[in-house]
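Late entry, written up from scratch paper. The run itself happened at the end of the previous shift, but nothing got recorded in the book at the time, so transcribing now.
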Amino acid sequence: MTLLIKNALTYLDKTFKKSDVLIKDGKIHSLGISVSCDTADRIIDAQDKYFLIPGFVDVHTHLREPGFSYKETIKTGTLAGAKAGYNVLCSMPNLNPPPDCAENLKVQTDIIDRDAVIDVLPFGTITKGRKGNGEIIDFKSISDSVVGFSDDGTGVQTEELMRQAMTECKKLGKIISAHCEVNDLLKGGYIHDGEYAKQHNHKGICSQSEWEQIERDCRLAKETGCKYHVCHISTKESVDIIRKAKADGVNVTCETGPHYLTMCDADLQEDGRFKMNPPLRAKEDMQALVQGVLDGTVDVIATDHAPHSKDEKSRGLAKSAMGVVGLETAFAVLNTKLVKTGVITLEKLVELMSVRPREIFGIEGGEIKEGAPANLALIDVDKEWTVDPDNFVTMGRATPFENWKLQGENLLTILRGEVVYEGI
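Output as recorded:
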């Protein structure tokens, strides 16, 4: 398909410039103010108001298949991602069977090959069975088939296991994407150990359960030279530890989620749609995360999209499953709460959601230039809408952003020159 996009505010050299973009043979063929093509199969006019960007990449998505297809499938999850402007979803290994060997990984990749409408890059586990203890996996056996290694949902509990894992991943040139959580410090908690928990008699999760393992892992990453990425950070201490580790030359990057940047435990309600792991922390944690975005400590915003069934999320804060959906709200929440309010620029948001994820995880794209793959999204930054989970494409419905009035909507998703979603 030959596609010509006219009059787009195009992300070029880290800023937005008006440009036409001609897409041919899956790549960006030419750019300029007045590009013409008599043989174009289709011409789309961006009307000098829509923004053409590298498509988003989510480095932390739960697609639930194999093993939990009643929550989500690779088909529904990737359709939701395509609608939201994502080119790539990196799928977490909380699966049955867990992708801890070639045989188990193939169960997942066969479904991806059959059903995915955008690219899905799976993570392999760090430990056998994704247990966070016991034995590390044979990393080399699946290294070429995964984007990295993670025990997401479980922290690696011993220093020696993580050292072994980092040593092996360093040899292979692969990244470890770590869920950091000290089991011994959880003590049955399920929301942040803060004012809301105290006032409403809930069991809290202390911040130390997160940052203590990050502190350990940053030390091990310096020792081993492993490329180390921290999942969904939520505490002010985590930001500070990672900031100092970067200054010390440690090869560490990190992500946080839209909900941690825009909500805190003061926003909690007695509803399972506010329950996720890590939990919404205190206001000062939220503010520290925003500062981490501003100063470059936080590299990526990932969704931690984690769908569950209606029943699993209808049991209140204490008994609902951990996890909320996030693909279809991520850009609009961040555009509304951070860009439209002047906290960050749209260019910075594109860096956080499109460019840096690709750089860190070695994923193609990230630049709009001649010869580059045409992996793109066309965004209306002013479109107003209200979050109604009944309109989601994902099978999950639990979102803390329900009924929020937002600005920003994806109109078109292009993957290697093919239109995989259209909402124009």
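The mean pLDDT is 98.
(Scratch paper discarded after transcription.)
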